[in-house]
Structure formats: C-alpha cells, structure tokens
Amino acid sequence: MTDAAPRGHSGERLLSVGRIIRPQGLNGETVVDLWSDQPSRLDPGTELVTDAGMLRVASSRRHKNRYVTRFEGVNFLEEAEALRGTVLWAEPIEVDGALWVHELVGAEVKTTDGRALGRVEDVEPNPASDLLVLTGGALIPVRFIVEHRPNEAVVVDVPDGLVD
Q: What does each C-alpha distance from 6 to 2, 9, 115 come to in angstroms?
C-alpha cells in the first residue's frame, strides 16, 4: 500500500482490493480483477472508493479467475469503458485469525524468548508459506507467527538456525 491510499470514513487508510479491467458486454457490466481473498468485497450493496468517487456494487458473479460486476448507475458500454483501469479501494475488514499485510509491515519482530529480529519491511508471496521480509534481509515464514499485535509487534517461534 502506498502513501497515496485514500482514507475512509473512520480516517483509516483504505486498502486497494481490485481493479476494473474492461467492460463486459454492452449493458454496463465490467470485468474486475479482485486482489483481495475476500469475495464479499464485491457483494451487492458494497461501496468501493475510486479516484473518481464512490461505486456501489449492483451485482457480481465469478467468471474464471475474475468477476463480472455491475455498478449502480453504470448501464452502458461507454460508461463501463470510462471505468477501465480504475483501482477499487475499501475499508479494512475483520476476519478472525487473518493476518493482513498492512498490519504486519512496520511491526517489530521478536522471538518467543524476546530476542529482537528487526521490523517487517514487506511480505513476500511464497508457495509454501508467505515470508516476512525483515530489515537486514532476513526471511521468516509467516507460519512461524505465534502472536500478532497489528502495526506493533509480531512474535515468532522459529527453529534453531533459521535466523542469526
């Protein structure tokens, strides 16, 4: 997430959750690439923020690895074409047990015995387990997180020899 992220009603930074790729058909539907693993982001009635204002989802259905989505007030091909490339932003949502990149980046990382390992600079996707990228370059699989306080601290239980 960049510093250019808009802010929501609560003043909290919004998360980029997807992008409108192109129109679908002639009646105002669009193809949306959803970046979030929460398909509820495109439930009917959901409001998404864009640089041009608010869009409210009228309907959405999964199609292959994307979503065909109609937004309220977008009824024609030309209106849908004008939305091509539009980034969709939304408020963070609470999901029990979920770890969110925006809550991990910047957090101080310590081992279960209190040894400081650095701060999280990024989270790198990896097929086996996403990796915390720490200041100094150390990589720690996310599966070793045992405690997390959003934006503050992460406690990891790492095997001996994983980090110096």
A: 10, 10, 36
